[in-house]
Amino acid sequence: MKQIQLNNGVSIPQLGYGVFQIDDLAQCEQGVRNALQTGYRLIGTTACYGNEAAVGRAIAKSGVPREDIFISSKVWIQDTGYKKTMASFQKTLDNL
After folding, report:
1. Which residues form the NADP-dependent oxidoreductase domain (predicted)?
2. Where are the domains of the chain?
3. Nearest to 21 by CA among 58, 3, 2, 46
């Protein structure tokens, strides 16, 4: 899969798999596992989707080394500011 080099020198996949509106957690987990088996290495999620734990389970069960997977998330407007943003990041890490 084509990679894009970021300003810090890290390369990230150009194409990712998103889990927006996948409310069925078993379906979300299976979809992420299938995506990883197909070759996706960038997964896009956020806490408001309510499926971060399913994404985490899929990654854990995938057999793909964690250091090979990029996970993107989002910070909502109500969580801006240093303390709220850091709490939002921690919530995502806990969920995953």
Report:
1. 26-96
2. 3-95
3. 46
